[in-house]
Amino acid sequence: MPVLGRWPNPLELLFPSLCVLCTAPLDGVKAVCTSCLETLLPTGLGSWLDKAAVREGLDKAWSAFWYDGTMQSLIHLLKYNGHRRVGKRISEAAFHQLEGEVPWGHFDVLVPVPLHRTTRRERGYNQSAVLARTLGELSGLPMNERLVLRHRWTRSQTGLSVQERRANVEGSFRAAGPGAGRRVLLVDDVLTTGATASACAQALKAVGFSEVVVLTVATPIKEK
Fold first, then answer.
1. Phi first, then psi: what are they for 49, rounded to 5°?
2. What are the boundaries of each domain within the chain?
3. Under 8 Å between Cβ of 127 and 93
4. DSSP for 5-63?
5. Half-sphere exposure of 53 toward its Cβ, with a 13 Å CA cutoff?
6. Which of 41, 102, 121, 221 has a beta carbon 3.0–4.6 Å from 66's, enabling a disulfide?
7. CA distances (Å), 14 to each of 11, 89, 125, 152, 208, in order?
């Protein structure tokens, strides 16, 4: 069956047992071989919210890997080529990388950063929800895709300045309340300036959620 709005990648249909990156045969794993995953570069940043250009509403930020090389290719396959199984593999890698840092039991719910319905219909799924679903399976935390909705379409943040990114997503999210003091772990693929995560966090805080922490599988922000 094709993914809604997009046909599956032909390579995945014809060669389902080969790595999507190096085409090596897969042995007991799906989509990405262990050797390719081992080339991912851990950030080692811990909670690094102080490095985000936009942070209003956010209490902490974690990113497992640098957004370069292998990770950039994997996220592109996840977002634009219909490879949802890639999302499962990189979220598993992120979970194990951050397992000793993120206090999973501290949070009440996982919330994926939402896509606008138009983008979701074109893509067929929300890549952040794919990541959050696997993180929920591994951590035992429930995932809720309905706590935050993207009610206004926005253009891509790629190529925009920090100020343009902030303005582009301002007011584009709406959260369902009451939050009743619950603590949210917000999940996304990449955190660049923090503008999108911040806009989501502010919407959640506005309806009573007490703490919003963002976790992404990758970031391009280099330690200064």
1. -55, -30
2. 41-219
3. no
4. TBPPPHHHHH-TTB-TTT-PBPSS--SS-HHHHTT--B----S-GGG-S--TT--EEEE
5. 15
6. 41
7. 5, 20, 22, 38, 49
Q: Which of 169, 175, 167 is nearest to 152 (CA)?
A: 169
> CB-based contacts of 14: which residues, under 8 Å, 6+ apart?
none
Indicate the CATH number of 41-219 among 1.10.10, 3.40.50, 3.10.450, 2.40.50. Answer: 3.40.50
Cα separation values, 108 from 7, 9, 103, Å: 36, 36, 11
Instruction: Tell me the C-alpha distance between 112 and 186, whole Å.
Output: 6
Q: Which two tokens stand for residue 37?
A: 């995953």
Helix (H) or strand (E) holding 120: helix 117-123
pLDDT in tens for each of the 224 residues of the chain? Answer: 334 444 555 655 555 588 999 999 887 778 999 999 999 999 999 999 998 999 999 999 999 999 999 999 999 999 999 999 999 999 999 999 999 999 999 999 999 999 999 999 999 999 999 999 999 999 999 999 999 999 888 777 887 888 888 877 888 899 998 999 999 999 999 999 999 999 999 999 999 999 999 999 999 986 54
Measure the CA–CA gap between 173 and 161, rounded to whole angstroms: 20
